[in-house]
Specification:
The chain has 21 helices and 27 strands.
């Protein structure tokens, strides 16, 4: 759907440059560049004209003379690569901004002694300390198999509440002091319904060990800064700066809160950033629902927060399941996990999910579904299919996120249903997590299902790039490069699912724009769209994946205004003034 050829500079196609009789000249002309447009009809150009923050012409340098007046700023890109601003189809900006201020292990695989040293250093520096609690985030799930209680329930740690948040955002561990603060005990667990109690690990006496998954982990996450509804404005400004630095100009905010648990704290922060002019990225936000009964409140909030610059509530976030990694294994799978025999669990029953998607569609809202196991993916697609039968004229592109496992029979359904595949392909690597916590528990056939990006692309599905930051890096260039190699320290993860650079550039532009319901405004350099543009420090079309991963953005433009400029990138190939 989004194809181009790499024979990009042999000729330059003139696109929409015919000037009507004496229109106003451009405010700015960017010329002498290698312009990737993400427009499948005309993928490459040389120059772009902008007026009023919008693109008014795309073509070659010669054609720009007819759009240049006495007051037009003319910028020589000096052969630099210009392209649409990048769009992240699944990201948690405020959580990312918060995590940049916390003691973050970054998901790295460390030994228990190394972890203890990190905790000690983070406490000594004060970075881990928040209102007397010690909080460490980005903890690799392999550490959950260690006896953390033997260390952190003993002096000198025993008296201090301590929370360790898993890098997967679905697991966590707390010491006894933190469990007491949160009101989690043998008695409180015994009073829970069995369905909720299963998310907590307990010892033979029924005492919580401190480890929890899914809803249990979310309960532990109440110990994180901000989970009391107090969101720091600096988290938002830090996140926006980080995203602009990497060329991100728009995004799908994967969870702006659950109305009953988070209230409107996240929405209020976005509103503040939008009104102050500090939201220099276009945010399409999702609100979480767990049942169809919650939808009217989401529709009310959509209307309440409408009309803000660069911010809107566009859809509903659903969690179909959890994660594949052992020991959690909460992802819903078609084939039982090897050795443990479990199949995970669906968080929303299929009939209820279909009701949610159908109702949201009728209220002109998209649905974005966390689906990791192949059973969860199938049920999510079934729900979209059910909605399509009820709303046959709908043109909304619902999306599925993560897609760790996809049964081959479900691959063609994405195109048939117009569903967007939002991949986080930085995860497509044969690393310690895959080698130790996933591979031993999947059959060889299911192992081949992982992150089937090439299969979906070849089947004509809309592929969207996403980061899930802060679960992993929010730098799109790292994910683009990883998707092309799928290489890791233990080899290549399903080599046949490697994708090309063209696929990934489109995934982070027009594909992700579709996922965020912004495809009519941004995502490609075509006449009439917003001038959301980035200038790169290199021509990525001519580089290896390793070189692409090191790409820097020289400047980022939102609506014709430069909102980020790299001051340490060396010699610029062009600089809008």
């Amino acid at each position: 759907m989004f194809k181009f050829t790499l024979t990009i500079f042999a000729s330059v196609v003139l696109v929409a440059c015919t000037r009507p009789a004496s229109p106003p000249p451009a405010d700015e002309v960017l010329k002498n560049g290698k312009v990737y447009t993400a427009d499948s009809a005309h993928p490459w150009a040389q120059a772009v004209a902008i007026r009023g923050g919008k693109i008014i012409a795309v073509g070659d340098d010669a054609a720009m003379s007819s759009w240049t007046g006495p007051a037009t700023r003319v910028v020589d890109l000096q052969g630099g690569m210009l392209m649409p601003g990048l769009i992240d189809s699944h990201v948690h900006p405020l959580a990312g901004g918060r995590q940049m201020t916390l003691a973050d292990l970054g998901g790295g695989h460390v030994t228990l002694p190394q972890f203890k040293a990190f905790v000690d250093e983070s406490i000594a520096s004060g970075k881990a300390l928040h209102e007397g609690r010690a909080v460490i985030v980005g903890v690799h799930p392999a550490l959950w198999s260690e006896n953390l209680g033997a260390i952190f329930n003993q002096p000198p740690y025993a008296a201090r509440p301590m929370l360790f948040a898993g890098s997967d955002s679905h697991t966590a561990w707390a010491n006894r002091a933190m469990l007491k603060v949160l009101g989690i005990s043998r008695e409180s667990l015994a009073a829970m319904p069995a369905e909720k109690r299963k998310d907590y690990s307990v010892d033979s006496a029924g005492e919580p060990t401190g480890f929890a998954v899914e809803a249990g982990a979310s309960n532990l996450f109440r110990g994180l800064p901000g989970r009391d509804g107090r969101y720091d404005r600096a988290w938002g400004t830090t996140a926006v700066r980080y995203l602009n630095e990497h060329g991100v100009t728009a995004l799908l905010e994967a969870n702006a809160g659950h109305p009953s648990s988070d209230g409107e704290a996240i929405l209020n922060l976005y509103q503040d950033l939008a009104r102050s002019g500090d939201l220099t990225v276009r945010v399409s936000a999702l609100l979480e629902a767990q049942s169809s009964q919650e939808l009217p409140e989401i529709y009310r909030l959509r209307d309440k927060y409408s009309g803000l610059p660069n911010f809107s509530v566009v859809g509903v976030k659903l969690f179909a399941d959890g994660v594949v990694d052992y020991p959690a294994q909460t992802a819903a799978v078609l084939t039982p996990y090897v050795g443990t025999g479990g199949t995970g669990a669906l968080k929303i029953e299929p009939a209820e999910m279909a009701r949610i998607v159908t109702d949201a569609e009728r209220h002109d809202m998209l649905v974005h579904i966390h689906a990791i196991g192949d059973r969860a993916v199938r049920v999510a697609l079934d729900s979209i299919e059910a909605a399509r039968k009820q709303n046959p004229s709908s043109t909304i592109h619902h999306s599925l996120a993560h897609l760790h496992l996809i049964a081959p029979a479900d691959v063609p359904r994405f195109r048939q249903l117009g569903a967007v595949a939002s991949f986080q392909l930085l995860w497509a690597t044969l690393d310690e997590t895959e080698q130790q916590l996933i591979k031993p528990y999947l059959t060889p056939e299911v192992w081949e299902e992982q992150y089937a990006a090439r299969s979906l692309a070849d089947a004509g599905a809309i592929i969207a790039g996403g980061s899930d930051w802060p679960v992993s890096s929010g730098n799109p260039w790292e994910a683009i490069a990883q998707a092309m190699t799928r290489a890791g320290p233990f080899g290549v993860l399903n080599e046949r699912e490697r994708v090309t650079l063209p696929t990934m550039l489109d995934a982070y532009t027009i594909g992700a724009a579709t996922a965020a319901r912004l495809e009519d405004k941004v995502g490609s350099i075509v006449v009439g769209k917003e001038a959301d543009l980035i200038l790169l420090d290199r021509n990525v079309a001519a580089l290896t994946p390793a070189q692409i991963a090191q790409t820097q953005v020289q400047w980022t433009m939102l609506g014709g205004r430069v909102v980020y400029r790299c001051e340490s990138c060396g010699t610029f190939k062009g600089s809008a003034q």
